[in-house]
């Protein structure tokens, strides 16, 4: 069965900003609140905003209660996750999606929010991988904001990348799955793991050691998760680290090392992930990946 797309937003509707992971203040999302209001939306802030428990936006119970309230409220038509960090996986098993199923709504975010994207896709629903409220004010982020607006309001959405020497040409179609590589490995074998089979996988990551990237790709390979892919989209791998004795490959070269074992098309350099050029994509949407001599396109 195709994944279900929640209704697109309309001016005058209410959206919620919540923090299922790292703590955040009202001041840090003021630009986002004003931006969303400029889009004609009413903005509700969850109780996790301004809450704090060590690095988290409140204790697990508070963050879970906040997210559940937004899932259950039929007047909230989208849930925007304020920031990533760490903590979403601590909540997801206790969330009840029965009211959400009666009235689906968009959930948007990236990085740690990969957990929710995968969980929702396994339940059969689409969601938006895109820029989060804490980053609405970043320099050179106009394309990211525009694409998020397009995704929320149902306007045409496409993502492109220039030619890259590691690209493998070809065309593939399928539902989009993926997100942050570290989180995809973390949820392997859990109730939040969505199948990659027959789908186009996109990957991004931040602040990881290069040998960690290799270890995670090796795990996806050995566990058979790469074998049935229709295609692979590679986004930003930002602020990679190395050891005193260099690993000897870049993140893209590590990915290529494993991708070469398969025949699906691969496109590198997509503006997805931890940079200002983080364009929105819809997880679960049926898309076509085209990789050619001039570059790659996902749409």
From TrEMBL:
Pfam families: Peptidase_S66, Peptidase_S66C. Residues 173-289 form the LD-carboxypeptidase C-terminal domain. Residues 15-130 form the LD-carboxypeptidase N-terminal domain. The keyword Cell membrane does not apply. It comes from the Bacteria. SUPFAM superfamilies: Class I glutamine amidotransferase-like, LD-carboxypeptidase A C-terminal domain-like. Signal peptide: none annotated. Keywords: Carboxypeptidase, Hydrolase, Protease, Serine protease. Belongs to the peptidase S66 family. This is LD-carboxypeptidase. The lineage of its organism: Bacteria, Pseudomonadati, Bacteroidota, Cytophagia, Cytophagales.
């Amino acid at each position: 069965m195709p994944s279900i797309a929640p209704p697109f937003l309309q001016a005058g509707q209410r959206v919620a900003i919540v923090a299922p992971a790292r703590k955040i203040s009202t001041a840090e999302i003021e630009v986002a609140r004003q931006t969303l209001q400029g889009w004609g939306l009413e903005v509700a802030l969850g109780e996790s905003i301004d809450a704090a428990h060590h690095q988290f936006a409140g204790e697990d119970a508070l963050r879970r209660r906040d997210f559940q309230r937004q899932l259950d409220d039929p007047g909230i038509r989208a849930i925007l996750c304020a920031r990533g960090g760490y903590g979403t996986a601590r909540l997801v098993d206790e969330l009840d999606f029965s009211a959400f199923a009666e009235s689906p709504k968009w959930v948007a975010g990236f990085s740690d929010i990969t957990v929710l994207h995968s969980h929702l896709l396994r339940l059969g629903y689409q969601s938006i991988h895109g820029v989060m409220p804490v980053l609405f004010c970043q320099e050179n982020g106009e394309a990211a904001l525009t694409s998020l607006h397009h995704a929320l309001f149902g306007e045409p959405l496409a993502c492109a990348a220039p030619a890259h020497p590691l690209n493998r040409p070809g065309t593939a179609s399928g539902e989009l799955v993926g997100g942050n590589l570290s989180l995809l490995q973390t949820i392997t074998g859990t109730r939040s793991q969505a199948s990659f089979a027959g789908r186009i996988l996109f990957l991004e990551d931040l602040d990881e050691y290069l040998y960690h990237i290799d270890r995670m790709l090796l795990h996806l390979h050995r566990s058979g998760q790469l074998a049935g892919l229709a295609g692979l989209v590679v986004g930003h791998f930002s602020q990679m680290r190395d050891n005193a004795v260099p690993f000897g490959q870049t993140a893209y070269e590590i990915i290529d090392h494993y991708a070469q074992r398969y025949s699906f098309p691969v496109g590198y350099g997509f503006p997805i992930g931890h940079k200002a050029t983080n364009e929105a994509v819809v997880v679960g949407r049926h898309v076509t990946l085209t990789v050619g001599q001039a570059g790659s396109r996902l749409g």
